[in-house]
Write a structure and sequence with these properties.
By secondary structure, the chain is α+β, with helices and mostly antiparallel strands. It is built from nine helices and twelve strands. The chain has two domains: 2-108, no CATH class; 120-271, Beta-Lactamase, CATH 3.30.450.20. The strands form two sheets. It has a six-stranded mixed β-sheet. Strands 7-10-11-12-8-9 form a six-stranded antiparallel β-sheet, sandwiched between helices. It is elongated and about 65 Å long.
């Protein structure tokens, strides 16, 4: 048996799971990486057995480039039999022949799961716009003083309460300096419970909606550079496992926190239906 994987950009990778894990700098090992990438990142795994193969995928997360690459590979490979393994709430297998596979894939996949221009919108906001949450407004306004005169543990406890347990803590990886999840609270990313259970140690950009992950990572890296807290209004359309393309509107705060020569980042969000960055000018 040999293994192929198609990533979220439609690129084909050949090799065993260990080589693929290293190539993607994943903290997960062996088969865990394949399972994680399929369920949470929209990758496709193909196990080859001569003129037969098993194709494993999660339809709601797969993107257009990955779908096209998979179809192209199947046409070139001229497989006689394909076991199509689909993950929804659980794994489901079906055996299809080469003439059936295109129709089955088309029926399974959403019409469009790719990010579109304008899906991810963000607007920097002044501290004063947090008037409805005065304690949080005061923390943002006085962060420079607070971070110099209070220890990290006390500040994290404060932020946890102010952001209703909707926060993450990021730290630089010791190996390459990339920002990775150090802690994820109970009330954030609830739509991605499977991913949340094993996301600690993963890079911030490695999120179930990979395009959103790459987009949101920029805000954290920018904050890590200037070490200044930020407050943004965010209006995004994400690919959620339960509802597909869904609109989310929230206020995002990111707090840089120097700790023993390192840099922690605490990010949190508060839902706000009043935010609308899609109003036509």
């Amino acid at each position: 048996m040999s293994l192929l994987m198609i990533d979220d950009q439609g690129e084909l990778w050949r090799g065993d799971s260990r080589r693929l894990r290293i190539a993607f700098d994943s903290p997960y090992s062996g088969g865990e990486f394949c399972e994680y990438a399929i369920k949470n990142l929209g990758f496709v795994a193909i196990n080859l057995y001569g003129l037969s193969c098993q194709v494993r995928l999660r339809p709601k997360f797969i993107g257009e480039k990955t779908y096209k690459s998979l179809c192209d590979w199947l046409r070139r490979g001229k497989m006689q039999r394909v076991v199509l393994s689909v993950f929804e709430k659980e794994w489901r297998d079906e055996l299809v022949n080469s003439k059936q596979i295109d129709g089955r894939l088309e029926a399974l996949l959403p019409a469009s799961t790719t990010a579109r221009p304008g899906d991810f919108l963000c607007k920097p906001m002044p501290v004063e716009s947090l008037a409805s949450t005065p304690r949080l407004r005061d923390v943002v306004a006085n962060w420079s003083y607070l971070s110099k005169h209070h220890d990290a543990e006390s500040l994290i406890r404060l932020l946890r309460s102010l952001m209703d347990e909707r926060f993450v803590i990021l730290r630089p990886s010791q190996s390459d300096g990339r920002l990775v999840f150090s802690q994820i609270s109970d009330h954030i990313y609830k739509e991605y419970e499977t991913w949340r259970s094993c996301a600690v140690g993963a890079p911030v950009e490695e999120q179930p909606d990979r395009k959103f992950g790459r987009w949101v990572a920029n805000a954290y890296y920018d904050t890590a550079k200037d070490m200044t807290p930020r407050h943004d209004a965010v209006d995004v359309i994400m690919n959620l496992p339960s509802t597909g393309r869904s609109r989310l509107r929230y206020r995002r705060m990111i707090f840089p926190m120097p700790v023993s020569g390192s840099r922690l980042l605490v990010g949190g969000s508060l839902f706000d239906a009043a935010i609308d960055l899609r109003v036509a000018n």
